[in-house]
Amino acid sequence: MDKNRKNNEDKKISYRLKDAIKCPICSYEFHREEMMTGGGRLIAGKLTDELRRLFDKNEKYGVVYPLAYLVTVCPGCLYSAYPKDFLELTQPEIDKISATTQGRQNSIKKFFGGINFENNRDLVLGAASYLLAVDCYTFRTKNVAPTFKKAASSIRAAWLFGDIAKQVPEKPYKKISDFFYRKAYQFYQLALEIVQTGAEPIEAAGNIGPDYDKNWGYEGILYMCAVLTLKVGALEPDINKRIENFEKTKRYLSRLFGSGKASKSKPGPLIDMTRDLYDRMNALLDEWNKENQQQQAAE
């Protein structure tokens, strides 16, 4: 092996699986790309208030986006799913996903132009994979816990589209990021209801993140409902609905984290962030209640 080739091998951040995957929708065969771990490729940074793990730029490998590799996407028909769900479909699921192929292809062309999932994953392909996953899980049965996966996929799409928007602010990716924040808000609220009713098997959800490196479980769902209520629910134009949503979310937080004691099910960092979230929600509620009182007095 010559020196240049060895240097290129040393800088690789992914590899292709040896065995090809045959798409259950269109029979296209391709080799799934996996991110390589170890070798100092990932330099973990801070954890954001949305439970996203940031990574510092690596001098050798550049910026690495672990989230970009999680969803399996057929380069032919753009059917997308997390690996354990990709091959296991019922015939009605296959029929519905097959019938919507043109719609997926049109969406990708509209938002990205010509991109090809045969290429190595980057930020754009990563963002596109989650857009496609949210679409495809719409047609999946409750056995694969689609609501949980649409919630996680939506917040990941919001993050990655937000990253693209910072790189190309002249294009409308910030609007797409905002759209997926709203979808995440909706799906996390639904996921919380499903946890309480058992309408989908939570064990089928796998790692519900929201990021790839830690499964925060039920506490994570509750926390994400709260943080998205703060960020998205605060935009509700009806002040009374806004107050109602915040009060409901506060009750969830108070019940689950009110003790303030860390345990295996209530990790310390999550409790600390929840306290901050609780305080911020209280400050806004005070402001809105005063605003309401002033409006009522004026009437």
What would you say this structure looks like, in words?
This protein is mainly alpha-helical and about 300 residues long. It has a domain at about 15-170. About 55% of the residues lie in helices and about 10% in strands. The strands form four sheets. The chain has a two-stranded antiparallel sheet. Strand 2 (about 20) and strand 3 form a beta hairpin. Helix 8 runs antiparallel to helix 9 and helix 8 (about 215-230) runs parallel beside helix 10. The radius of gyration is 21 Å and the shape is globular. Residues about 1-10 have low confidence and may be disordered.
Low-confidence stretches: 1-8
Strand content: 5-15%
Given helix and strand content, the structural type is mainly alpha
Determine Rg (CA atoms, Å): 21 Å
**What is the overall shape?**
globular
Physical arrangement of strands within the biggest beta sheet: 1-4
Global mean pLDDT? 88
Query: What is the CA–CA distance across the termini?
Result: 82 Å
Largest sheet entry: 2 strands, antiparallel
Helix and strand element order: HEEEEEEEEHHHHHHHHH
Please provide the count of β strands: 8
User: What fraction, in percent, of the residue positions are helical?
Assistant: 40-55%
Tally of helical runs: 10
What is the fold's blueprint, element by element?
Elements: H1 3-10, E1 14-16, E2 21-22, E3 29-30, E4 33-35, E5 43-47, E6 53-56, E7 72-73, E8 80-81, H2 83-86, H3 91-99, H4 101-112, H5 123-137, H6 146-167, H7 173-197, H8 217-231, H9 239-257, H10 268-298
Antiparallel strand pairs: 1-4, 2-3, 5-6, 7-8
